Structure formats: C-alpha cells, structure tokens
Amino acid sequence: MANAWRFPDDSRIIKIFEIAFTPEEGRVLLELNTPVTRAELVEKLGEREEYVQEKLDSLGGWARPVEGKYISIPNMIGVIPERSLPDIPREKVVEVWSDFWRSGEHPKWLLETWVRMYNISGQPIHRILP
C-alpha cells in the first residue's frame, strides 16, 4: 500500500497502515486504485462475493461507491486514526501519527494526491474563491 500511495518504503506510513487496517482490508484496498465493480473485485481477489462485501463494508469511507464501482480515495488519510484496530492503544496511534506529520512528507504527498485525483476526475479538488 505504501508504494501504491506514493510513499515507497516509508516506515512511518507503513506503521500507520499496520495499525489502521487488517491485512485482508489492505489487500482489498490495493485493488481499489482504479474504479472497479464488486463483481470485478470478486474475480481479482478470487474470493466469495459475501467476503468481498464484508471487507468493503468494514472499510467504510475508504471504499467509496461511485457510479456502481468502488474506489479508494487516498487523500482521506486523516480518517485513519478513527479506523484503528481495537487492540492498539490510542497512545500508540498518536505516537505513530505524530511521527508522520512531523516528517514533512505529508504536504508533498497531499499535493501529489490532489493532482492524481484531478487527472482521474478532471475536477479540481479545491478552489480559491475571491
């Protein structure tokens, strides 16, 4: 996931992903880089439809339905702390996130994500209104 989200080999983001998602959820998220139907996802993952739907449901806002297809929106990274696994202490989540924010990588990543989403949708992510 770190490579797919343009954080190759970044130990900080890898720690965040380990806290935020189960390996099964991560596997599903990796297939949502481009819009995909549930049936296509079932085929790609080689899993039962019920299993895939359960994972899509467990991902909440991370698996966004758009015109009958699902896609993951990486620029929603700020919601990860609320998706932390229940057995991880809140202090650990805060420590890992603090390390990530202080690294200075977030602004660069955010800009690249906005450009990526613009290229996919053709719509600007933000606008400045005078």
Give structural notes.
It is a single chain. This protein is mainly α. The model has no long low-confidence stretch (mean pLDDT 81). Helix content is 51%, strand content 6%. It has a two-stranded antiparallel ribbon. Strand 1 (63-66) and strand 2 (69-72) form a beta hairpin. It starts with 10 loop residues before the first helix and ends in a 9-residue tail after the last helix. Helix 1 (11-20) packs antiparallel against helix 5 (90-102). It has a single domain, classed as Winged helix-like DNA-binding domain superfamily/Winged helix DNA-binding domain (Arc Repressor Mutant, subunit A, Orthogonal Bundle), CATH 1.10.10.
SSE layout and pairing:
Layout: H1 11-20, H2 23-30, H3 38-45, H4 49-58, E1 63-66, E2 69-72, H5 90-102, H6 105-121
Antiparallel strand pairs: 1-2
Report a brief summary of the structure:
The protein is mostly helical and 130 residues long. The protein has helices at residues 11-20, 23-30, 38-45, 49-58, 90-102, 105-121, and strands at residues 63-66, 69-72. The chain starts with 10 loop residues before the first helix and ends in a 9-residue tail after the last helix.
What name does CATH use for the topology? Arc Repressor Mutant, subunit A
Mean pLDDT: 81
Give the tally of β-strands: 2
What are the secondary-structure elements, in order, as H or E?
HHHHEEHH
Oligomer: single chain
Helix content: 40-55%
- Supply the number of helical segments: 6
Give the strand order of the largest sheet, numbering strands 1, 2, ... along the chain. Answer: 1-2
Strand percent estimate? 5-15%
* Superfamily (CATH H level) name: Winged helix-like DNA-binding domain superfamily/Winged helix DNA-binding domain
Task: Report the radius of gyration as a whole number of Å.
Answer: 15 Å
CATH architecture: Orthogonal Bundle
Helix/strand/pairing class, anyone? mainly alpha
Q: The biggest beta sheet, please?
A: 2 strands, antiparallel
How many domains comprise the coordinates? 1
- At the first level of CATH, the class is Mainly Alpha
